[in-house]
Amino acid sequence: MSIASALGFSSGKKVRYAIVGAGDIAQEAMMPGVSHTGNSEMTAIVTGDIVKAHALGERYGIEHRYGYDDFARMLADGVADAIYLATPNWRHAEFAIPALQAGLHVLSEKPLEITSEKAQSIVDAAAASSARLMVAYRLHFEPATLDAIRRIRAGELGEVMAFTSAFAQMVDPANHRANSGDLAGPLLDMAPYPINATRYLFEAEPTEVVSAVATRHAAAGFGADVDDTIAVTLRFPGDRIAQFTCSYYANAINSFVVAGTKGSITMDPGYTFGKSLEQYRVIGGKRSHESFKATDQFGGEMAYFSDCILNGRDPEPDGEEGLADLRVIEGIERALASGRAEVLPPFHRSRRIDPDAQERTLRVVSPPEPVNASDPSRNQG
Q1: How many helices (H) and strands (E) does the chain have?
Q2: Which residue, of 21, 259, 272, 363, has the greatest Cβ tally within 10 A?
């Protein structure tokens, strides 16, 4: 019997989470909203900065505080039923696998890992465990995104043929996202958003990376080995095309257009959190605009995952969803290296988003000042 199942939940209604990794995304986006999920609570924190652990523990009333080196002890102590994993991407397997082996459920930030091989090792650990694994695709629970999916499924856009996206932020060269060797740059950090969007809007898996181009601007101030901007074209079944550009050195934008034979939907913004997402529609020659109320996307995804745990259901954005995006990322890496089109290995996604079951509308929560963590964006003042 696993440690978690032997101990049972802290109550019949709440899942106890250990926050593993306390950088800007955990502090700004996830931790402030846990208390209003109704079915989740923070009982432990694990970070490489023990000063941060104690400060955040005092702020949120988190009793159990650990360093990364004490992770195994945290698992053995039985102080959590699940972990929210927000370490750098290349450390996900390091914590997810032992957690799953100990019977703790895992909510992992995306991408699931940095290679499909490492991601598969996490998926295999979940398959061998009684615990559940979910990848934190927060937009799978966001009302504006789910509305676009509903409209496409209802045929309002006709046959969906094309997708175009721009996603950029001016990243501070001092941030770890730009200082991690070949793991730095927007491909692993930002590209999962348009890749995932193409897959859930087309409801299909790409078959080919038609082209991938990267640039390095000296004025960006990054290392000589960091691609600060990438542009990608993907081919999907049915001669559908998706194109996107991600950049660490362009002014902030996060938008996309999905177009079909009868109309189009533009989302601008389309990927952000903490703000309203906007839809601009042209359907049957008629233009319309809808502003969707901002929601706590992070609290919403945790509430959904906890609901799955408490009711014995498998979450939709599971390990297979994480593998699907890494398959594309690795194809882009090959295309960047070869300068040629790269055929992607066959892949079948067994589940798709269920808008009615997954939509969450928790109110937005304002984050407090971070502790020893900084926003990745450079000061453009």
Answers
A1: 12, 15
A2: 21
CB within 8 A of 100, min separation 6: which ones? 106, 122, 125, 126, 128, 129, 131, 133
Query: Do 236 and 248 touch, CB atoms closer than 8 A?
Result: no
**pLDDT tens-digit series, residues 153-194:** 999 999 999 999 999 999 988 877 777 666 768 999 999 999
SS3 71: helix
pTM of the model: 0.94
Alpha helices per DSSP H over the chain:
3-7, 24-25, 50-60, 71-77, 92-101, 116-127, 143-153, 186-189, 192-202, 297-311, 319-338, 355-358
Work out the end-to-end distance of the chain between its first and last CA atoms, rounded to an integer number of angstroms.
Answer: 56
Cβ 30 vs Cβ 56: under 8 Å? no
| Banded pLDDT at 378 (limits 50, 70, 90) | low
- Give the pairing of strands 105-108 and 133-135: parallel
> 259 exposed, middle or buried (CB, 10 Å; 0-12, 13-18, 19+)?
middle
